[in-house]
Design a protein that fits this description.
Helix content: 25-40%
Number of helices: 11
Largest sheet: 7 strands, mixed
Strand content: 25-35%
Structural class: alpha/beta
CATH architecture of the largest domain: 3-Layer(aba) Sandwich
Distance between the termini: 72 Å
Order of helices and strands: EHEEEEHEEEHHEHEEEHEHEHEHEHEHEE
């Protein structure tokens, strides 16, 4: 049977032709309520023809997620494993061409890889997935079949269900489950010059912050001889890179006992490679830790501030900026003159200019000047889709902090 047809208002076509793959509910001529979330539909614009096939959701602001798939190539109400095989191979091929380590890599980044709502990270012999759209969630079996065809050496694939984006699609949240195989709680993996024991079950995100790879390597090159503080350290990514780069002393702080335990084990695992660097981790609230450090006049030469997203929605962006500003100010207070501040935000709803304005305000309040050393973003395995600003979410800056005028 032919796919249901949804009519898109013509005044919104230009944005879609520029590459944005989302159609919002107010951009449809009608919003049918008799189609199940995740149904495949054909999008059509009056006098402009078909926009192709997409996933439809009757109750979400993002009503239609285009697949860049011509309607005539879609024979039925479900996508076939061959569709996913082709998209997976294309995503894998780009990352191989870019010289990325595809055994420790984000292999699929949703809309940027023309698979809206699908996140797929690989960690050695295992993969961790997030299905963030109802359309992808309906195609679990086809996704599993395609993964086995494209990556037959994978021993297991773990599905995470803890993203708040699932709630917007009416999808259940809860504990992870195996899509196929059996993923262990922790795996061992060589990555970025270090040996890691990565916790995949119950960890933040999909197990590790792969998007910060290039920024971690830059911190490694900056750290020689410095006293380093890594805030929101998670499993020790920045902290251990700083130690590998020759930092004389590194302290990692995180509020998660599980993360601190993992980071401590990772430091022990790499003790020989880290040489004479003193590395310690502590389970503490970051804000309270900084306040107490300032009270006892403790100082560091390089401070890394890599917090979780403070803004989950546009409505919380303003309060998130206040939080970021306070956090930067506290960090700058315990930074030596001429020291380095490496800081970022992964909040999609906080624009880059507004974030760095908050950093600048925090510096001025401490009577400091900032000198840009590096402007960074997410790694190449998280490609940015031109025409869709939402896919460029990570803002990162490294500053030298000098006394004010």
């Amino acid at each position: 049977m032919p796919l249901p047809i949804l009519n898109v208002k013509s005044k919104h076509v230009e944005r879609l032709h520029h590459g944005h793959p989302w159609v919002f509910s107010n951009e449809l001529v009608q919003v049918p309520t008799d189609l199940a979330p995740g149904s495949l539909v054909q999008a059509v614009v009056e006098k402009a023809g078909s926009l192709g096939v997409g996933f439809y959701h009757p109750h979400n602001l993002v009503a239609l997620r285009l697949l860049r798939l011509p309607a005539e190539s879609q024979p039925g109400p479900r996508l076939s494993p061959d569709f996913f095989i082709a998209r997976f191979r294309n995503a894998q091929g780009y990352r191989e061409q870019a010289g990325l380590d595809t055994r420790a890599c984000r292999l699929v980044f949703g809309e940027s890889d023309e698979l809206p709502g699908l996140i797929l990270d690989r960690y050695g012999d295992y993969a961790v997935l997030e299905l963030l759209s109802a359309g992808m969630d309906r195609h679990r079996e086809e996704i599993a079949q395609a993964m086995k065809a494209v990556w037959p050496d994978l021993r297991g694939a773990l599905l995470r269900h803890d993203s708040s984006l699932r709630r917007l699609e009416g999808l259940p949240e809860g504990p992870e489950e195996d899509l196929y195989g059996q993923t262990p709680v922790e795996i061992e993996l060589s990555m970025e010059g270090l040996a890691w024991g990565l916790t995949l079950r119950g960890a933040q995100k999909t197990g590790f912050f792969l998007d910060q790879r290039e920024n971690r390597l830059h911190v490694r090159g900056l750290s020689r001889g410095l006293r380093v503080l890594d805030l929101f350290s998670n499993q020790g990514g920045f902290a251990l890179q700083a130690a590998l780069g020759g930092a004389r002393e590194v302290t990692g702080i995180d509020a998660s006992a599980q993360a601190i335990a993992a980071a401590t084990r990772n430091a022990a695992r790499n003790a020989a490679a880290l040489g004479g660097s003193k590395v310690e981790f502590a389970e503490r609230d970051v804000f309270k830790f900084l306040e107490e450090a300032a009270a006892r006049r403790e100082k560091w030469d390089l401070i890394i501030v890599d917090p979780p997203a403070f803004a989950k929605t546009k409505k919380t962006a303003v309060s998130a900026l206040h939080g970021y500003e306070r956090l930067q100010g506290l960090a700058i207070r315990v930074l030596n003159h001429g020291g380095f501040l490496a800081t970022g935000s992964c909040s999609m709803h906080v624009e880059e200019d507004r974030f760095f304005t908050a950093v600048s305000r925090a510096a001025r309040a401490q009577q400091k000047r900032l000198v840009w050393m590096r402007r960074g973003e997410q790694g190449a395995d998280h490609p940015v889709l031109a025409g869709m600003p939402e896919t460029r979410y990570l803002k990162w800056g490294v500053f030298r902090v000098l006394p004010g005028m």
